[in-house]
Amino acid sequence: MAVHTLKRVQRLPIPLEKAWDFFSSPLNLKEITPAYMGFHVTSDPDFLSPMYAGQVITYTVKPLFGIPLFWMTEITQVAPGKYFIDEQRVGPYALWHHQHHFKQIPGGVEMTDLVHYRVPLGPLGDLANGLFVRRQLESIFNYRWSKLEGLFGTMPH
Which residue among 3, 32, 76, 129 is least crowded, i.e. fewest CB within 10 A of its CB? Predict the structure, then answer.
């Protein structure tokens, strides 16, 4: 059972505070997730802001064949304006550890996503990762990249 890694770095022409405010609210995830995923936050919105360590967030997602799955993550660490980490407690992965890092740079913010994940079912899960899970995750992050540039603009080269 391999642990896989996905890393993305994106720069946006917005202040660090604006990036933090957007990403630290789980209610904004739906806006940057492809519609086919059927992503829906089911947690009580009164307990979603501000983000805090120990916060539990529940969702439904439809990653395969439109079948809804329950997903629960916990925000395990938060350093406001710097990083937060969410870990799956219940859901489709055998392991999901997602680090979100933020850094002020000239003209904007640099955001780094670092995901460590393991697909369940041992060797069959590793095969599924090679056949479609990895591509689906990359597609979701590519969609996110495009949506964020649409919302906040692109950094000059």
Answer: 3
Structure tokens at 114: 């670092």
List the one residue out of 104, 103, 102, 109 whose CA is nearest residue 154. 109
User: What are the angstrom distances between the C-alpha of 121 and each of 15, 22, 153?
Assistant: 42, 35, 41
Residue 47's pLDDT band, with cuts at 50, 70 and 90, is: confident
Vertex 100: Cα angle to 1 and 117 (nearest 5) = 10
Classify residue 19 as exposed, middle or buried by CB count within 10 Å of its CB (0-12, 13-18, 19+).
buried
pTM: 0.93
Q: Among all chains, which residue has been given the structure tokens 């990653």? A: 63
Q: Which amino acid is at 19?
A: A
pLDDT digit string (tens) for 5-17? 999 999 999 999 9
φ, ψ at 82 (rounded to 5°):
-120, -55
- Residues near 143 by Cβ (< 8 Å), separated by ≥ 6? 32, 33, 34
Determine how β-strand 69-79 pairs with β-strand 56-61.
antiparallel
Instruction: Report H helices in the chain.
Output: 16-23, 122-128, 134-152
